[in-house]
Amino acid sequence: MSDKIAADAAVVIVGAGLGGVRLAENLRAGGHAGPVVMIGAEPHPPYDRPPLSKTVLTDASGRVDLKPGEFYADSAIELRTGEHVDALDTASKTITVSRADGSSYQQAYGALVLATGLLPRAFPGTQDVAGVFTLRTFDDAEKLRRAVGAGPNGSAVVIGAGFIGCETAASLHTLGLSVTLVEPAPTPLAQAVGTEIGALVTRQHTERGVTVRAGIGVDEIVTGEGGRRVTGVRLADGELLPAGLVVVGIGSTPVVGFLDGSGVELASREVGGGVACNEVGRTSADGVYALGDVANWRDHGGTQRRAEHWNHTVEQAAIVAAALLGTDHAVVPAVPYFWSDQYDLKIQVLGWPKPDDDVQVVSDDGHKWLAYFSRDGMLTAVAGAGKVGAVMKMRPKLLTPTPIVDVLPG
Ligand SMILES: Cc1cc2nc3c(=O)[nH]c(=O)nc-3n(C[C@H](O)[C@H](O)[C@H](O)COP(=O)(O)OP(=O)(O)OC[C@H]3O[C@@H](n4cnc5c(N)ncnc54)[C@H](O)[C@@H]3O)c2cc1C
């Protein structure tokens, strides 16, 4: 089945984030002459999310726009911000869009690309409690930064030590708060990279003065002022951690609600949920594609996977654009990559680490470290902190099957 669209086909993109912008840009760079419409629910022009848990908090450095304002008009990309796509009718190839003023309209498409990202999970019952935050959007980051600036620089608790939780804990510590990072798994990042690397991540937090409480869950977020303001966090063992500020980083869910009733197939929870796609992003509906954090692509081994990483989104946008243009394209990201900045350290992960892989820490000076992951004797991934060159030079070894003994030093 060809994915190639007609030269004058209207491509409509739902979601004006990283994936949407890169797709639009690639379509124009590849010569697509038809309309390109990008609809985004947020009021802002498209911006980059990684700085939100880093410089936007620590340096109040403001929004990092993905493109200069004139880019969209210059590229004939029709950007509609502050508009929400509510429904999709695959039979008539139209979407229903609502505006902030309450009005709505129908938009027809030749090809529709879903790039709607994720919504952070809230801690149940705390949506309206002052001092409790999640972090996904620029507005979330601004609210959190203002709360730090406004209050006495007291105690903060970060619930969940995934990448965003760890980065936020580092940023709040940098801003002078006394921070406790709480994680039910045995270490931070255990689900992503296992407990051995998690222990190195714990060290980088504790040696700077962040308290890491791993292996214990949170029973409740404790409030005062008649339930209006957070005062602390009660752990599963009954201990109360007083806190004027709580950041909840307990994961996110793909934004797919607007697809209810559309018939577009979703991936099962077991494989990560999101919109089920083939290896070029095509969904079960004719002319409908998905990419980025919301998309669950099939890889060339036939496995469905969903990733929540910047590079992955950029690579998928290039693949979908090439498929729509009928040009040659790369396959699903050959070697997955992501990074996380915590304090002065860049943590990088290249490859397919699994929490139960064998891990060999090949260098560790007490601050920077490098580790190789293997399964059944074969190299699966490389991770490092402060080891940019050493991590990236392993990419060729991950492109072909490599016995771990061939890369271990000495
Ligand atoms: C705080 C933070 C820090 C991060 N740091 C890193 C990092 O260090 N390294 C890394 O590799 N990755 C990082 N990431 C992940 C990276 O930013 C994402 O992988 C990337 O933004 C995914 O792009 P996307 O286009 O799929 O989704 P998004 O960038 O989330 O864009 C989706 C857009 O769609 C809009 N939308 C949703 N539903 C609708 C609808 N129905 N109608 C209209 N619009 C809609 C949303 O409002 C949103 O603006 C970070 C993410 C966050 C939140």
From TrEMBL:
Tell me the InterPro entries matching this sequence: FAD-oxidoreductase/Apoptosis, FAD/NAD-bd_sf, FAD/NAD-binding_dom, FAD/NAD-linked_Rdtase_dimer_sf, Reductase_C
- Keyword line: FAD, Flavoprotein, Oxidoreductase
Tell me which residues make up the FAD/NAD(P)-binding domain: 10-317
Cofactor(s) the protein needs: FAD
Instruction: Give the top-rank taxon of the lineage listed in the UniProt record for this protein.
Output: Bacteria
Domain Reductase C-terminal, first and last residues per copy: 337-395
Q: Which SUPFAM superfamilies match?
A: FAD/NAD(P)-binding domain (SSF51905), FAD/NAD-linked reductases, dimerisation (C-terminal) domain (SSF55424)
User: Per its record, how is this protein called by name?
Assistant: FAD-dependent oxidoreductase
Q: Which organism is it from?
A: Gordonia defluvii
> Taxonomic classification, please?
Bacteria, Bacillati, Actinomycetota, Actinomycetes, Mycobacteriales
